[in-house]
Amino acid sequence: MTKSFYLKLAFSNVRKNARLFAPYILMNIGIITMFYIMHAISVNEGLNTMPGSDSLKFMLSFGTYVIAIFSAIFMFYTNSFLIKRRKKEIGLYNILGMGKRHIGIMLLLESMIIAVICIGVGLISGMVLSKLMYLILLKILSFSVTMGFTVSISSITLTILFFSSVFFVTLIYNLGHIHLSNPIQLLKGSAVGEKEPKTKWIMTLLGLVALGAGYFLALTVEEPLQALLVFFVAVILVMIGTYFLFIAGSIAALKLLKKNKAFYYKANHFTSISGMIYRMKQNAVGLANICILSTAVLVTLSTTVSLYIGMEDVLNIQFPSDVYIRNYDAEANDIKVINDKVDLLAEKNNIKITDRYGFKYMYISTLKSDHQLKYDIQYDVSSKRVDITFVTASDYEQLSGENLTLDPDQIVLFTNSENYGFDQIKLEGQTLNIVNELDHFGGITKASQPLNTEYYFIVKDEKTMINLVETATKKSDRLIDYQLTFNNSGNNADLSRFNQELMSDLTSNISSTSVRSKLLAKSDFFSVYGGFFFIGIFLGALFLMATVMIIYYKQISEGYDDKIRFEIMQKVGMSMTEIKRTIKTQIVMVFFLPLLFAIIHIAFAFNVITKLLFLFSFTNIPLFIVCTFATILAFGLIYLLVYFLTARAYYRIVK
């Protein structure tokens, strides 16, 4: 056999199997395009001119790695569908005289043809679309940076090397699969799994336990920091439960339906359920994958869209005041210099200062148990952790204009969440009487669900403050710090100059001083949240693409498996109307099961996801609910469209 013969045969096979290869090639082109665009943007020099460029470049690089990992998994998984469907064809080649070495050459050339098409077209489309996606990113981040048309050589090189490696690994897998099979096994390869599986009650029970445990963890988590630890454990448990229930639980459910004579002994139910029982073992993994990918799409898009839309709210939560100045181990001279600098620079830049609050304070972290607060020496991440800030009555009087007369064992209390509601509280055995509870302190107001629980203790004087802190911590070297907050107004150019000069001057000339500016942090803030949204779009599209491909190949596989069975049934008297009704019942029962489970997963994960969003200072739960419902609705419509398209393909094969 000549080399040209193998090449012609490879081209012929790709063309004749277009129904199988075309979606695979299109998916790979889309994945390669996304990978190139993400990497090309992450190394684009235009990012260096943006505020917060380091954070944005890190996130985009991280997104590139995530896309690479999932791309390899999806490409390998969809390839397994292809090789399974082609086993009979390859077995015929083997029986007709082609040795496995010749078949290997044919598969090698097919892989090379597909790889060249996918990588070539993917790179071209990536180069064409990269500038458009870059401009979309700038629009998301509200930046205006000029950029000409550029082609990233490093991105081209990395894309070619990475995806060539993935195609090579899939080729090795295919060759190994063929090498270990004999011609008879290959001819019957597509019929594997026709033996009725046994009901695996233990696996079903384990699936229910794993799923229930994952749901329980997600529902019972109370604090955001706990959610960060619990989330990944819950995800693993839910994934295990999903796989076990689809593999074993689905068979158990079908057999229970089979025992229901009133339901089972109807023409459409009889053929659908009996057919699904026989092949559920091989279909269940695909259904579980569809369910998990659908859940990933819903979670990724709903959270990133919520964060992006709610960016301004999050910024306002993190910065109730425009400027925060902190001086550690405060001295009277430093405090005077800080206030003088603020006044001087404000006057110089035509800035108006309002809502100015300055006070000295001491700070400790405690653990709360009932009405007692214990010093948290190890800074434990606990749901009962309370951060306490001590302020003197004289400083509070300057802030509010209210006169306070307190004894050493008396405090005025402010909490950043709900009111404490009791007359006494104990701090390391020291009983403190609460004479009043405030609704706000300076520029700080209450939040419905704050990230950290904070108490402000307003005490008699500086001596009382020091005694309380030193008795609680059992240390005599605790320092008194100073905080100044205020709002500023003026035109944008003057505000930017004022904030930059203030930060540079104070941090350079006064030791142990930090300055946080809402205006200066806004660009970094938008880079992070806009970057999340941009990556979320890419990952959502990637997961959606993989979901559609798995659904398509699953329907195609089932169509070929059902073709002979329905031909036999038609010959023994089943009409085309009954066959259509049977097909519809079977597809609806199986097809929408993963979507139903995905929505259930989202419902149970709602609590833990909202707690994770609190870590980003996102507390607008109604907005998240709206985004989640909108995402489910949009995904459901796409899922329905895929259903109609794949159902038609399935019916054409069966017919």
From TrEMBL:
Keywords: Cell membrane, Membrane, Transmembrane, Transmembrane helix, Transport. InterPro entries: ABC-4_Integral_Memb_Prot, ABC3_permease_C, ABC_permease_BceB-typ. It holds the Pfam family FtsX. The chain crosses the membrane at residues 21-42, 62-82, 103-129, 149-173, 201-221, 227-254, 286-311, 526-553, 587-609, 621-645. It is found in: Cell membrane. Residues 64-175 form the ABC3 transporter permease C-terminal domain. It is a multi-pass membrane protein. Belongs to the ABC-4 integral membrane protein family. This is ABC transporter permease.
